[in-house]
Amino acid sequence: PENRQRIATLLKSVSFYRRLPSVTFPVEPEVYQYFLAHPDVAVSVWRAMKISKLQMWQTGKNDYEADTGDGSVGELEVLHAGPEKSLVACDGQYKSPLLSKPINAKSVFLLQTSFARQPDGTMHVTHRADLFAQHEAVEAFLHHHAEQQHRLAAVPDEERRRILVAAPDLGDVRKLQRATVGNDGRAAYLI
Fold first, then answer.
1. Fewer CB within 10 Å: N-end or C-end of the chain?
2. How far is CA 5 from CA 11, 16, 18, 93, in A?
Protein backbone atom coordinates (compact mmCIF):
# COMPACT_ATOMS: atom_id res chain seq x y z
CA PRO A 1 0.00 0.00 0.00
CA GLU A 2 2.81 2.46 0.84
CA ASN A 3 4.57 1.72 -2.47
CA ARG A 4 1.30 2.03 -4.41
CA GLN A 5 0.73 5.50 -3.00
CA ARG A 6 4.34 6.47 -3.72
CA ILE A 7 4.05 5.33 -7.36
CA ALA A 8 0.57 6.84 -7.84
CA THR A 9 1.81 10.22 -6.56
CA LEU A 10 4.73 10.19 -8.98
CA LEU A 11 2.61 9.10 -11.96
CA LYS A 12 0.18 11.99 -11.37
CA SER A 13 2.93 14.53 -11.97
CA VAL A 14 5.26 12.89 -14.50
CA SER A 15 7.44 15.46 -16.24
CA PHE A 16 9.32 12.96 -18.39
CA TYR A 17 8.36 9.60 -19.90
CA ARG A 18 10.44 7.40 -22.16
CA ARG A 19 9.84 3.96 -23.57
CA LEU A 20 13.28 2.60 -24.25
CA PRO A 21 13.89 0.54 -27.38
CA SER A 22 13.20 -3.17 -27.01
CA VAL A 23 16.40 -5.19 -26.92
CA THR A 24 16.75 -8.90 -27.68
CA PHE A 25 19.92 -10.91 -27.10
CA PRO A 26 21.07 -14.48 -26.41
CA VAL A 27 21.36 -15.35 -22.74
CA GLU A 28 21.61 -18.10 -20.17
CA PRO A 29 18.41 -17.54 -18.14
CA GLU A 30 20.08 -18.43 -14.82
CA VAL A 31 22.88 -15.91 -15.39
CA TYR A 32 20.39 -13.25 -16.48
CA GLN A 33 18.22 -13.83 -13.38
CA TYR A 34 21.32 -13.60 -11.18
CA PHE A 35 22.27 -10.20 -12.60
CA LEU A 36 18.68 -9.02 -12.32
CA ALA A 37 18.69 -10.01 -8.62
CA HIS A 38 22.15 -8.44 -8.11
CA PRO A 39 22.31 -5.26 -10.26
CA ASP A 40 25.37 -4.04 -8.37
CA VAL A 41 27.31 -7.05 -9.66
CA ALA A 42 26.15 -6.37 -13.23
CA VAL A 43 27.31 -2.75 -12.88
CA SER A 44 30.70 -3.92 -11.59
CA VAL A 45 31.09 -6.15 -14.64
CA TRP A 46 30.26 -3.17 -16.90
CA ARG A 47 32.93 -1.11 -15.14
CA ALA A 48 35.49 -3.92 -15.49
CA MET A 49 34.67 -4.11 -19.22
CA LYS A 50 35.04 -0.30 -19.42
CA ILE A 51 31.56 0.17 -20.92
CA SER A 52 30.28 2.28 -18.00
CA LYS A 53 31.60 4.45 -15.19
CA LEU A 54 28.47 3.94 -13.10
CA GLN A 55 29.10 2.81 -9.54
CA MET A 56 26.45 0.97 -7.55
CA TRP A 57 26.47 -0.66 -4.14
CA GLN A 58 23.86 -2.48 -2.10
CA THR A 59 22.74 -0.73 1.09
CA GLY A 60 19.84 -2.98 2.14
CA LYS A 61 17.91 -6.07 1.08
CA ASN A 62 16.30 -4.27 -1.91
CA ASP A 63 18.13 -0.93 -1.70
CA TYR A 64 21.06 0.45 -3.66
CA GLU A 65 22.96 3.68 -4.09
CA ALA A 66 24.43 4.78 -7.40
CA ASP A 67 26.82 7.44 -8.66
CA THR A 68 27.31 8.13 -12.36
CA GLY A 69 30.41 10.24 -11.80
CA ASP A 70 28.95 13.26 -13.62
CA GLY A 71 27.15 14.83 -10.66
CA SER A 72 24.19 12.44 -10.67
CA VAL A 73 23.61 10.30 -7.59
CA GLY A 74 20.62 8.27 -6.53
CA GLU A 75 19.04 5.85 -4.12
CA LEU A 76 17.20 2.93 -5.73
CA GLU A 77 14.66 0.56 -4.24
CA VAL A 78 13.53 -2.60 -5.99
CA LEU A 79 9.78 -2.58 -5.32
CA HIS A 80 9.01 -5.77 -7.24
CA ALA A 81 11.25 -8.37 -8.83
CA GLY A 82 9.45 -11.10 -10.74
CA PRO A 83 10.31 -13.38 -13.65
CA GLU A 84 8.52 -11.14 -16.17
CA LYS A 85 8.34 -7.71 -14.52
CA SER A 86 10.59 -5.66 -12.27
CA LEU A 87 9.74 -2.27 -10.79
CA VAL A 88 12.37 0.06 -9.38
CA ALA A 89 11.91 3.46 -7.70
CA CYS A 90 14.71 6.01 -7.58
CA ASP A 91 15.24 9.28 -5.75
CA GLY A 92 18.06 11.13 -7.42
CA GLN A 93 19.91 14.40 -7.55
CA TYR A 94 22.03 16.19 -10.14
CA LYS A 95 24.65 18.73 -9.07
CA SER A 96 26.57 21.01 -11.39
CA PRO A 97 28.73 24.10 -10.88
CA LEU A 98 26.41 25.81 -13.39
CA LEU A 99 23.38 25.32 -11.12
CA SER A 100 22.61 27.46 -8.10
CA LYS A 101 21.09 24.41 -6.38
CA PRO A 102 20.86 20.69 -7.17
CA ILE A 103 18.01 19.30 -9.29
CA ASN A 104 16.08 16.64 -7.40
CA ALA A 105 14.12 13.98 -9.24
CA LYS A 106 12.05 10.87 -8.55
CA SER A 107 11.53 8.09 -11.06
CA VAL A 108 10.00 4.70 -11.59
CA PHE A 109 11.51 2.18 -13.96
CA LEU A 110 9.44 -0.76 -15.24
CA LEU A 111 11.35 -3.59 -16.91
CA GLN A 112 9.36 -6.27 -18.74
CA THR A 113 11.22 -9.42 -19.67
CA SER A 114 10.35 -12.40 -21.87
CA PHE A 115 12.39 -15.47 -22.83
CA ALA A 116 12.09 -17.42 -26.08
CA ARG A 117 13.94 -20.50 -27.31
CA GLN A 118 15.24 -20.07 -30.84
CA PRO A 119 15.15 -22.78 -33.56
CA ASP A 120 18.87 -23.44 -32.98
CA GLY A 121 18.16 -24.15 -29.29
CA THR A 122 19.63 -20.94 -27.86
CA MET A 123 17.59 -18.89 -25.40
CA HIS A 124 16.99 -15.20 -26.06
CA VAL A 125 15.66 -12.55 -23.71
CA THR A 126 13.73 -9.47 -24.80
CA HIS A 127 13.67 -6.32 -22.65
CA ARG A 128 11.08 -3.62 -22.81
CA ALA A 129 11.54 -0.77 -20.37
CA ASP A 130 9.51 2.30 -19.43
CA LEU A 131 10.87 5.23 -17.44
CA PHE A 132 8.59 7.71 -15.64
CA ALA A 133 10.32 10.68 -14.01
CA GLN A 134 9.34 13.75 -12.06
CA HIS A 135 11.71 16.61 -11.34
CA GLU A 136 11.32 19.83 -9.46
CA ALA A 137 11.23 23.18 -11.20
CA VAL A 138 14.64 24.41 -12.31
CA GLU A 139 15.42 28.06 -11.84
CA ALA A 140 17.42 30.08 -14.34
CA PHE A 141 21.03 29.35 -13.54
CA LEU A 142 22.81 31.84 -15.72
CA HIS A 143 20.93 34.86 -17.04
CA HIS A 144 18.33 36.05 -19.53
CA HIS A 145 20.51 38.59 -21.33
CA ALA A 146 22.84 36.53 -23.50
CA GLU A 147 22.51 38.95 -26.42
CA GLN A 148 23.72 41.89 -24.35
CA GLN A 149 26.38 40.09 -22.33
CA HIS A 150 27.63 37.68 -25.04
CA ARG A 151 27.27 34.62 -22.76
CA LEU A 152 25.31 31.40 -22.49
CA ALA A 153 21.75 31.63 -21.20
CA ALA A 154 19.74 28.79 -19.69
CA VAL A 155 16.21 29.29 -18.44
CA PRO A 156 13.47 26.94 -17.25
CA ASP A 157 10.40 26.25 -19.37
CA GLU A 158 7.77 26.08 -16.63
CA GLU A 159 5.01 24.97 -18.99
CA ARG A 160 6.77 21.86 -20.31
CA ARG A 161 9.15 21.49 -17.32
CA ARG A 162 12.30 21.42 -19.42
CA ILE A 163 15.48 23.48 -19.50
CA LEU A 164 15.96 25.73 -22.50
CA VAL A 165 19.58 26.45 -23.39
CA ALA A 166 20.35 29.22 -25.83
CA ALA A 167 23.46 28.91 -27.96
CA PRO A 168 26.30 31.06 -26.65
CA ASP A 169 26.49 34.47 -28.26
CA LEU A 170 30.06 34.80 -29.46
CA GLY A 171 29.67 38.26 -30.93
CA ASP A 172 27.62 40.06 -33.52
CA VAL A 173 25.72 37.92 -35.98
CA ARG A 174 26.85 38.32 -39.54
CA LYS A 175 25.13 37.41 -42.76
CA LEU A 176 25.18 33.71 -43.62
CA GLN A 177 27.51 33.08 -46.56
CA ARG A 178 26.18 29.63 -47.57
CA ALA A 179 23.42 27.28 -46.54
CA THR A 180 24.15 25.04 -43.56
CA VAL A 181 21.91 22.32 -45.01
CA GLY A 182 22.37 21.11 -48.59
CA ASN A 183 19.63 20.16 -51.05
CA ASP A 184 19.79 16.56 -49.82
CA GLY A 185 18.90 17.59 -46.23
CA ARG A 186 22.41 16.89 -44.93
CA ALA A 187 24.84 19.39 -43.53
CA ALA A 188 26.54 21.25 -46.36
CA TYR A 189 30.29 21.18 -46.59
CA LEU A 190 31.65 24.44 -45.21
CA ILE A 191 35.06 24.26 -46.85
1. C
2. 10, 19, 22, 22
